[in-house]
Amino acid sequence: MTELLVHEACRKGKLEVLEEAVEAGCDPRERGLQAGTLPLHWACHYGHLKCADYLLRLGLNDINCRNDNGNTPLHYATIAGRLDVVEFLVKNAADVNIINNDGQSPLHGAVGQGWYNVVKYLVTYRSMSCRECRRYRCRIHQVDINSADCMGTTPLHIASTFLTSRMYDLLVRHGADTRAVDVYGRCPISPRIRRQQFIMECAPFVFSLLFLFAGIYVKKCVLRNDVETVEGSTDV
Fold first, then answer.
1. What is the DSSP track for 35-91?
2. What is the pTM of this model?
3. Crossing angle, helix 2-12 and helix 15-23, to 10 degrees?
4. Structural domains present in the chain
5. pLDDT of amino acid 198
6. What is the pLDDT of residues 21-35, one digit of tens each?
7. Per-residue DSSP letters for 193-221?
8. Distance between CA atoms of 79 and 107, rounded to whole angstroms?
9. What is the spatial distance between Cα 173 and Cα 193, in angstroms, rounded to a whole number?
10. How far apart are CA 139 and CA 132, in angstroms?
11. For the CA atoms of the chain, what is the radius of gyration?
């Protein structure tokens, strides 16, 4: 019951209940039944920034703590599109390039869910206290935009499956590799090119239908004229 109380408080953002539970002896590091998820994961997933801040200030939770699937609080926040929580975690030294058991980074999750603003923040973040970040050469605080998961899928591969090219173009502008190959040998093709390919592939079929309907229409017109001619000659 104590475990459920802490987890439920973090899910619903009830800071007072969370504080009372911890003061009463509940362990904020207690793992839940769902993939070994911690209260901090739920607070970040549901966007309860005050609860997340409280848990971290206790000093008992690692900001990069993982559940059984290897997901961290930053994974949860990016998948849910919680930009304010993402900013909070990143500024408090959350690892932006940490991967889960499938080899996916938080950027994979943000791109996969289509959270444009979250992706934009991750790919443009620079730590002002880091000299290398200010020179755009840092490999510690800057996200690895070409990180590939266990299947060789990069965030750009995911963005290439969208109907629009907005996310794809954002990643390319910030250095995503358009020649990256997954385990199936596929490169991330721009949605704009995919649309053009689709149009070119469908064009013969569309024109065939147009010719078919045009032929049917012409036949109907000819038949109507023949009927009118016959009726006219009968009247005479």
1. TT--HHHHHHHTT-HHHHHHHHHTT-S-TT---TT---HHHHHHHHT-HHHHHHHHH
2. 0.79
3. 150
4. 1-95 (1.25.40.20), 98-128+139-202 (1.25.40.20)
5. 56
6. 999 888 888 888 888
7. HHHHHHHHHHHHHHHHHHHHHHHHHHHHH
8. 9
9. 17
10. 8
11. 28
